[in-house]
Amino acid sequence: MACSTWLHPIPFFISRRTPAVHSNLRRYHRLISAPPRLQPPPMEVRAQARRLYAFEKEDDVASPADLSFQEPLKIVEYPDPILRSKNKRIVTFDDNLKKLVKEMFDVMYKTDGIGLSAPQVGINVQLMVFNPVGERGEGEEIVLVNPRVGKYSKKRVVFNEGCLSFPGIYADVERPESIKIDAKDVTGTRFVYSFSELPARVFQHEFDHLQGVLFFDRMTEDVLDGIRSELEALEKKYEDKTGKPSPEKIVTRQGRKEAAAGSRKSRTHEKRDSGVAGLVHKE
Q1: Closest Cα to residue 117, out of 102, 125, 128, 107?
Q2: Residue 264 counted as domain residue
Q3: What is the mean pLDDT of residues 86-104?
Q4: Of 273, 267, 151, 253, which is closest to residue 200 (Cα–Cα)?
């Protein structure tokens, strides 16, 4: 059964891998061999970690209705608002949760993914599953309930990421190279674990989903420019399918950044002009 193993030391270097997995891991090891850039994780990442330890309100707890689902599960694509919605903590560890985990692994493998979060299948709860190898019966299936990050490494690496909620879109994202986390397994048992290299990246990508953060939110503007047209195509696809306006627009985000940059430039000119005027007046 897909959910029969939950979390044990992960055999990353298994004997059998697909050519695609070999290629990804070779590329990843080349990237992480570069000298580390000693800098702290971004402020937004550290802020997320702090906020996670503060959510104990009753309305943050998932009800049985929040964990209900219909088979087969379907991947939710950008810009569906489900991907930005709040995801509740799980406090009920029962057969329904185990069945949900099994179904999540099934859809992950069928769509050639290596990780999947609950909001990506329309269920807004704190749950993720992944298998860095991406092949049923190989590697180790990881299930994390209510995960929290305790520590990020200072070393950061750039790697090309894709996402099941962004079909066919791949771009570079920089993330910490290793992390220490705590979470519960599918039985409700809490544990602490450390991930590094590819598993750490998969965890962080799925963990972002649980915070309503999407992978393009982490991209530099130069990288984002390379996929902007593809994101706009997904927005149009959503509008055509639902008959509703897209809940978010990548072009709007760019417009806000340009407006902010223009405002900063304007204020700089104003200060410079003011300084020149003062000198002239003095003379």
Answers
A1: 128
A2: no
A3: 98
A4: 151
Cβ-contact 133, 121 below 8 angstroms: no
Provide the domain count of the chain.
Answer: 1
CB contact at 8 A, 122 and 69 = yes
Give the range of the structural domain holding residue 176, as residue numbers without chain letter. Answer: 58-244
Query: Is residue 2 a part of any domain in this protein?
Result: no
| Tally of CB atoms within 10 A around 5 | 11
Tokens for 160, please give them: 């090309």
- Bridge partners of residue 190, in order along the sequence: 184
The residue among 181, 74, 173 whose CA lies nearest residue 119 is: 74
Angle at 121 between CA 119 and CA 127, to 5 degrees: 50
The confidence band for 208, taking pLDDT boundaries of 50, 70 and 90, is: very high
Tell me the two tokens of residue 28: 């990843």
Tokens of 265: 């430039």
Residue 30 is inside which H or E element, if any? helix 19-32
Is beta strand 115-117 parallel, antiparallel or unpaired with respect to 127-130?
antiparallel
The reply to whether 277 falls in a domain is no
> Residue 176 maps to which CATH number?
3.90.45.10
CB 218 within 8 A of CB 205: no
Please list the active-site residues: 206
- How many CB atoms are located within 10 Å of the residue 9 CB? 7
CA atoms within 13 A on the CB side of 91: 11
Distance, in Å, from the CA atom of 68 to the CA atom of 28, rounded to the nearest integer, reads: 37
Closest CA to 7 of 126, 99, 101: 101
Say what the pLDDT of residue 274 is. 43
Least reliable range by pLDDT among 66-70, 217-221, 268-272: 268-272
Question: What's the pLDDT at 195?
Answer: 98
